[in-house]
Amino acid sequence: MGRCYSVPVKNRQPCLPRLWLVSDARNDAVLETVLARLPRGSGLIYRHYHLAPGARRARLRALLPVARRYGHRVVLSGDARQARRWQAQGCYGAAETLARGPRMLRLATVHSLRELGRAHRSRADAVLVSPVFATASHPGAEGLGPVRWRLLAQRAQVPAIALGGMTARRARGFPRWAAIDGLSPKSRPPQPCSRSILDADSRPAA
């Protein structure tokens, strides 16, 4: 189990995917294509905040069989009870959202050392530390940069996933990463991630 995490932990989820696709209005039209081209066993963080609740659930229902076909894990932005109702395998969000509910994979969003402490108390199985770089999701927000990201990630008691302006090129040296646009190019059909990128991702963060 130790090889799956940055530090030894007990009673955690099995090895997490190294690569996570994050859903958004910007990549909705290509989600099925991207899911089919991701390495088997990747992850999908389903957000889709732009949709009304009924439409949001219906869109997830359409994506679930596609994700399962390729062995991807699906995590819903919401609390654990909602994720269970919607048949997702885990939940994603701020620590206070994840603190209650049934046992399942929990991915907590972290932007600071204070939020990292909250994530540890919320039973998080992994943390998405962001933004590493400037990102379209938060125009004008300053990125942590690789050095500050690593300093924060090294304090995590669970695996850290890099999010924010990530691309396959920038991801070299990060153990795990997630992206919206970085995995969903608009100008051309999404390209599969090379195995060499994933091999690089498996190295511990420096």
From TrEMBL:
Domain of life: Bacteria
Pfam families registered for this protein in UniProt: TMP-TENI (PF02581)
Annotated source species: Novosphingobium soli
SUPFAM superfamilies with a match to the protein in the record: Thiamin phosphate synthase (SSF51391)
Name of the protein described by the UniProt record: Thiamine phosphate synthase
Domain Thiamine phosphate synthase/TenI: 21-171
Region ranges (Disordered): 181-206
